[in-house]
Design goal:
By secondary structure, the chain is mostly helical. It has a single domain, classed as MetI-like fold, CATH 1.10.3720. It has helices at 2-22, 32-45, 50-56, 58-65, 71-95, 99-107, 112-146, 153-163, 168-199.
């Protein structure tokens, strides 16, 4: 569930984040209208707690997926929430690239698109990997919450066999599994970011 969601979220969120940056004031595709809509969409949805977002989106999920329960029904809202988070992460990391790098690329005659795709994104890649790691950790949390609406996984196990049956051991085991998954994810993300940064 997490892997599939992350795949689709990156496919949507990465270009969305690039578009968010490119349409900002003074950038290559400056467009106040598009940038304003994207910012409003992200700023509206991101603060909503995922459990509320998941439930509120049930009618839309049922219409698009054909059901409101199960793994695929959970993947849709998870992908939507993660995509917007990734878009903001991409924008923030590209914006944070040293302006001197941009000026150097301009001095060498690079086009604005070359600066965006061959300079800014590679420069921000290490931070982007860490950002994706953070998103993956959030998706592990989302997948646990999605278990409450029949999506299966660790959340379903904890809720059905732990909480509803008052089995403290099951609850403890699921919490430990979640912690281990998060630690492994964070370690892998940090490792890849470090490897990429050291290659620059």
């Amino acid at each position: 569930m997490v892997a599939i969601t992350l795949f689709f979220a990156v496919l949507i969120g990465l270009p969305l984040g690039i578009l968010l940056y490119a349409t900002a004031k003074g950038n290559i595709l400056e467009n106040k209208f598009v940038n304003g809509i994207l910012n409003a969409l992200i700023n509206t949805i991101r603060p909503i707690p995922f459990i509320i977002f998941l439930v509120a989106l049930i009618p839309v999920t049922r219409f698009l997926v054909g059901t409101s329960i199960g793994i695929w029904a959970a993947i849709f809202p998870m992908t939507l929430a993660a995509s917007l988070s990734i878009a903001r992460i991409v924008e923030n990391n590209i914006v944070s690239v040293d302006k001197g790098v941009i000026e150097a690329a301009e001095a060498m005659g690079s086009s604005k698109f070359d600066i965006l795709f061959k300079v800014l994104i590679p420069e921000a890649a290490g931070a982007l990997i860490l950002g994706l790691t953070f998103t993956t950790v959030s998706l592990i949390e989302f997948s646990a919450v999605a278990g409450l609406v029949g999506a299966g996984g660790i959340g379903y196990l904890a809720f059905t066999y732990g909480y509803q049956r008052f089995d403290v051991l099951i609850m403890f085991i699921t919490v430990v599994i979640l912690i281990i998954l998060v630690q492994i994810t964070q370690f892998i993300g940090n490792k890849f970011a470090s490897i990429y940064t050291n290659r620059l």
